[in-house]
Recover the amino acids of this structure.
């Protein structure tokens, strides 16, 4: 068995937890792998092919760390086990206090897999494909200048559905419906509904409402820079600056996010625990 280790936030406590996990696994004959930017902090040799060849990757941190880990593992369909060493840890599977028990279950192959669909954004400029990005939660456009808005036309297939003037625009998955989109006033979507959502961030008009579309139809966003410049972000990371008449085409990604799970956790129960949702 080969286990990958991934951390993002370099703090003493997280690094020491990762080092302890590596030693514990190696003492039991488990091969451990880490990318260069992680291995340098753990005192181990970097794996230039990380995460290729791993049976599972441990994500030690919060939801942000887990999302970055999935960006690396999704092309290889490698499961990720999220260990929450952060704050909310909505997507992570277990709290840090259960790390040792989790490792025992991992090396005993006592875990299940949950697959969630991802979205893919393709940035087109002057008719040419500039870049492609995948996201677990969301891809969004956001203004660069605080005093200005962005202007975006949205098309579902060939049909124009809206012209939006707002601080930004979020395209999100059901997994991402409990992230940035929720803060913007979007709906909570059960992850079994494989749909794509779109919502404006602080729109200029009050009639701008979120829409849900099937993942079988492409969503095309055309950016007009007359109101101000903007950037594209994927799962919270900046991807590119936009130019006038750039187009972002969002479709279902060919990759899936694969989560390692210890039993079935009910979606609405997690909402109640993490967000105090639906309680009186």
């Amino acid at each position: 068995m080969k286990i990958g280790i991934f951390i993002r936030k370099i703090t003493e406590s997280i690094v020491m937890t990762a080092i302890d996990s590596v030693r514990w696994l190696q003492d039991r004959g488990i091969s451990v792998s880490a990318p260069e930017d992680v291995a340098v902090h753990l005192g181990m040799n970097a794996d230039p092919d990380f995460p290729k060849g791993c049976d599972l990757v441990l994500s030690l941190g919060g939801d942000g760390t887990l999302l970055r880990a999935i960006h690396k593992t999704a092309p290889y369909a490698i499961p990720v086990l999220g260990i929450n060493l952060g704050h909310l840890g909505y997507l992570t599977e277990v709290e840090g206090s259960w790390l040792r028990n989790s490792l025992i279950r991992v090396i005993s192959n006592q875990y299940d897999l949950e697959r969630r669909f991802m979205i893919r954004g393709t940035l087109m400029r002057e008719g040419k494909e500039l870049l492609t990005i995948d996201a677990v939660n969301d891809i969004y456009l956001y203004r660069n200048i605080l005093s200005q808005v962005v202007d975006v036309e949205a098309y579902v297939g060939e049909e124009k559905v809206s012209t939006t003037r707002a601080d930004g625009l979020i395209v999100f998955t059901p997994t991402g419906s409990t992230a940035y989109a929720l803060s913007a006033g979007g709906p909570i979507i059960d992850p079994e509904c494989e749909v794509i959502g779109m919502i404006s961030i602080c729109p200029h008009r009050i009639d701008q409402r979120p829409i849900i579309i099937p993942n079988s139809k492409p969503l095309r966003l055309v950016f007009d820079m007359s109101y101000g410049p903007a950037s594209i972000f994927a799962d919270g990371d900046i991807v590119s600056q936009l130019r006038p008449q750039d187009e972002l085409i969002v479709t279902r990604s060919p990759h899936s996010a694969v989560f390692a799970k210890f039993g079935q956790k009910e979606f609405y129960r997690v909402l109640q625990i993490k967000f105090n949702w639906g309680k009186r």
Notes: Residues 2-110 form a domain with the Rossmann fold fold (CATH 3.40.50.10330). The chain has two domains: 2-110, 118-255. The mean pLDDT is 94. The first strand starts at residue 2 and ends at 7.
